[in-house]
Write a structure and sequence with these properties.
180 residues; Restriction endonuclease-like alpha-beta roll fold
């Protein structure tokens, strides 16, 4: 018998002052049996940072032809393709060729080694942005994971503040490559 996905529900009150975007997002997120809590929360942060009415979760781990997140316009063009972790360089190439913009969010210590090994190849993709989340902030966020979450998020001057219950976390990001 195959393992089933775990379903999480998150209500996110988002104030993104950098993009002048304010919304309440009611998300249902399916965690694939092989997906770690760390990757799940990274995926949720990626959704928050790229919030748009056309943004949706892709099959990601289940289907290599789909992104972890993507934004598809009414003409069926992929405006944004979001990858997480340490994808194969060929996967990033495919994403960059299919989408107008591609963003990779790295996390966890092994990402630093992966980045050093791949940055020269990846730098040729002009529509690719690469960011890395700090380990401490993500670990603190994962500790607050529950099946139903009410989250307040403020983004201003590049800083990402997340409030869950009485906990307030600053999730630091480092931009390693900016799309042209």
């Amino acid at each position: 018998m195959a393992l089933k996905s775990t379903i999480y529900k998150a209500t996110i009150h988002l104030s993104d002052m950098d993009k002048n975007y304010y919304d309440t997002l009611n998300l249902t997120v399916a965690q694939h049996p092989s997906e770690t809590d760390l990757r799940l929360m990274t995926r949720l942060l990626a959704f928050i940072l790229n919030a748009h009415e056309d943004l949706s979760f892709g099959k990601g781990l289940s289907d290599e032809d789909e992104a972890a997140l993507w934004q598809i316009n009414y003409s069926e063009e992929i405006e944004l393709w979001v990858e997480l972790g340490q994808p194969d360089e060929k996967r990033l190439k495919k994403a960059c060729n299919k989408a107008n913009r591609t963003t990779l969010y790295g996390y966890n210590s092994p990402f630093d080694v992966w980045w050093q090994q791949n940055k020269s190849k990846i730098s040729q993709y002009s529509n690719l942005t690469v960011e890395r989340f700090d380990d401490a902030g993500l670990s603190s966020l994962v500790a607050l994971l529950s099946r139903t979450m009410e989250i307040q998020v403020s983004i201003q001057d590049g800083q990402l503040w997340v409030n869950i219950g009485d906990e307030s976390l600053l999730i630091e990001r480092e931009c390693l490559q900016i799309a042209e």
